[in-house]
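Protocol step 6 of 9: fold each sequence in the batch and record its C-alpha cells directly after the sequence line. For illustration, a two-sequence batch is reproduced in full.

Sequence one:
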Amino acid sequence: MPTFVSILEDTLYITLPFKQGIYRYLTDGTWVDFIAMNGKQVPQFPKKVGNDKTVGYVTVVDQTTSSFSFNLSIIDKKFNNFIDLTDKKINLSEMQNLNVMDFLVPFACGDDKIYVGQSDENSFKIKVFDKTGNELAVMEKPYRKIKLSDVEKEDFINSLLKLNPQQTVQNMPISFKKSINAIFVDNKGRVLAQESIERTKENMDLLSFAVFENGKYIGNETATFKKGRDFFDVQDITKFIGDRVYTINMDGTINIFKIVN
C-alpha cells in the first residue's frame, strides 16, 4: 500500500513501505524513473504547494554526531533540493524520552504560501512563507496558557505510544497544551487555525478555529465534524477541498461535511 501519493504538474509521485525513494509516473501511467533519497527519509505528512513543490517532514540521520534532524522542508519536484522551514535536532540517545509534539508543528498550504504554526505553549503565532522559503509575515492573536487535564494527558500519551510503542512516557514533562493543533485554508482563502481550549463535558466535541483573513485575525468560528482533541494526532487526516471537509478514518472510511457559509 503506498505511503505517499502526490501529483505535481503532470507527474504522479508514489512511495512504498521500506523503499528509500520515490517512483515517478506520468498521470497517464507511463513510467518515468525512481528517485533515491540519498540518506534522507521519504517526506512524512506531505502537502502540495503550487504545482511544482511539496512541503513535508524530512528525517536526516547524522552518524558522525549520533544525532538526527526532523525538519519541515520545501522539496522540489525532483526531490533533490530541500529548504528547511524548521530546525530541530536531537541526540539519538534521547530518543526514548522524545516528545514528538516538540518536532511536529501544524502547517498548511494555499495560494503558493505555506503557513507554519509555532510549537508553543505560551503564544499563538503562524509564520507565512513563500514557496522558496522566504518568510513573508507572522500572524498572531492573544493566547492564554492552558493546562492539560489528567484525562487529556492520558489520551495524548496513548497517541504518542501509537507513534512509538517503545517510547518511555511515564516521566515525560507534559503539562500544558500547544496553542495550535492544526491549520487549514478554506475555500475563501482564509487561514483556520484549530486552537486549544479549556475542555468541559459540554465542549468535548467542539473545535475552535482562529480565523485569519488577509493576514489579520478576525475572530473565531466553531465546528463539530471531529473529536475536539487539543494536540496533533498523526492518525487524524482532515482535508478542506472546495465547500467540503473530508475526514479520513483509520478503517478507510471517509466522512464528508458541507461548509455552510
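Sequence two, same batch, same settings:
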Amino acid sequence: MIAMAAQAYDFWDGSSVPVSRKVTLNPDQVLTRGLARMIFDHPQEPDRLIKVVDPDGTDARRAQKRNRPAIMLYGAFASWQREVSEYCRIMNRMGQLPDFIAGYHGFVMTNLGVGLVVERIGDADGQLAPSIDTVVATNGHNLDLRSMIGAFFSDLTMSGGVASDLNPRNLVVACRQGKPGLVLVDGLGDRVILPIRAHSAFFRERWLRQAEIKLCRELGLQD
C-alpha cells in the first residue's frame, strides 16, 4: 500500500505524514507568545501564520488534568476544536466567511508538533496588524477606535457568534480592502460546558453589550 502511494504521490516518504505537509519552525523566531500558544510566520505561505501549542502553556497544563469532557476528547487541542467549531457555526448562519475574524486554513505537521494554520492579518503597511491595546499605547486615541469597536461588536452580534475572550490582545487593528477595522485573532467560541449563549440570542447579546463596555473601559474609551 505504501509503495502504491509512493508511486502516486512523489512527496510521500513512507512515514505517516506527507513531506509536503511538514513544516520546520525555528523556536527562536516566535512572532508572539500567548498564555497557551506560540505563533510563527508560515515559512511557505507569507499570508498565513502557524499556531502551535506551547508545552509550558495553559492548554498543555489543562490537558494533563483531563477534568473536563472537551479536554478528555481533544486534550491540548480543545481550544482549537472550540474555535473552529464556532467559526463553522458563524459561516452557517452568515452563508459566507466572516471578515471580522481571522480565517482558518487547516492543520500542518511541524517539528514543534501539530500546527493550526490561520490567516495573517496585516495593517495598512502590510505589517502584522497590532493589537488594539498596542495601538492605544503607541498612538493614544488618534484613530477612531470607538467606532471600530462598535462596528466589530455589531458584526459579531449579527453573526450570532460567541467569543470566550474579547480582551484587547485578541483584537487587532487591521486594514482590509483599504479600510481599517478590528479583527478577532483568538478567543473564538464559548468555554462553558453548557453553551447557553450559542443558543440564546438574549443571553448572547446581553453578554456582548457587557463585553463591549468592559473593552472600552480597559482602553479608556468610555462614552
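Proceed to step 7 once all outputs are recorded. Observation for sequence two: Residues 1-15 have pLDDT under 50 and may be disordered.
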